[in-house]
Amino acid sequence: MPDPPAPAPRPPVEVVRSARRKRTVSAEVRDGVLRVSVPGHFSAGQEKLWVERMVERMSAKYPAVPAVDHDQPVPLLLERAERLARTYLDGRGIPATIGWVTNQNTRWASATPARRTIRLSHRLRGMPERVVDYVILHEMAHLIEPSHSRVFWDLLRSYPHTETAKAFLEGVAFAARHAPPAAQD
Predict the structure, then answer these.
(1) Containing domain of residue 35, as a range?
(2) Which of 72, 95, 103, 110 shows the greatest Cβ crowding within 10 Å of its Cβ?
(3) What is the mean predicted confidence (pLDDT) over 40-47?
(4) pTM score
(5) Which of 105, 128, 130 has its CA nearest to residue 120?
(6) For residue 6, is it within any domain?
């Protein structure tokens, strides 16, 4: 008799304490990380208890590890990111890891500044190089400035295709939202 399958690995967990949160606990999976928000006054024991509960609840809904597409080797993406950083970001914002994922269907990419990681949606494949470069630069700018502040947008000012790439991505998203339903056979 074969061994039972190993349990799925626990997703990375980030605990967010909030002074404004009084009683409720919430959880969401964002960029492959389970973010558990708890009241700031919780003891370490209460926090541990609620994190365990939320991991149990959320593990049924979300895969623990994002699906990664290994078709384009990570070293090539990292070299591309390094070249873009040298050219447009004064050598800053280089990720520790960058790769293709197949679990991002509503975002073009995502970054985790604390881990210096960037994940690119497989939906970017086949798009013009200047558009993919913009998305990579956008995420690298988040490694420098996490918010979409003026500082963030100033980082992207030197890339000459920012506005056309944004327009292209908006057009693709619009077309996807307004596409007629697929024909049924």
Answers:
(1) 13-59
(2) 95
(3) 87
(4) 0.61
(5) 105
(6) no
